[in-house]
Automatic annotation (TrEMBL), chains A, B:
Protein name: Transcriptional regulator
Species of the source: Rhizomicrobium electricum
Domain Winged helix DNA-binding intervals: 12-94
Amino acid sequence: MEQPDPTIHQPVRLKIMAALKPLPAGEALEFVRLKAVVGATEGNLGAHITTLEQAGYVGVEKDFVGKRPRTRVSMTPQGRRAFDAYVGYLQDIIGAAG
Amino acid sequence: MEQPDPTIHQPVRLKIMAALKPLPAGEALEFVRLKAVVGATEGNLGAHITTLEQAGYVGVEKDFVGKRPRTRVSMTPQGRRAFDAYVGYLQDIIGAAG
């Protein structure tokens, strides 16, 4: 791997993936919760989630709780593999830096 | 720190800093050696070194060995502090991802 996966290396997307990774497989995080953790604007977060979704790294579910629309985001198995590879790449570089 | 230091987070600059960090303080790496380690083109590497130099993170020395021009690059104390903070930030994010 010559460079870190650009889909994950972008700072906001890195935070999104790091926030989703600890969740058990298939479990999702509500958009509003992710927004608080990542500290991005709604539009910015939405755009980066779409990028991750198009890459196959996250899944997005939209439903209603009563009358309130709800959006939940979860990491896909492919996303987990990509994030593990990304972390391994960074640890190689940073590890070598001692 | 809300996001990783963009001066370091850029993939080529990250590799440059990681290559320089293990060197004893003040010791420098020749441009051609850095080029091999980082795997960037001469122009690309030169541009990123200039960015790091302008940020105060690296120092650049140019001299001659006989008739051959030589360029050497070393990390500044400020660069070491910035890189340590950058690594700490990433480890927090990646560490939290478990």
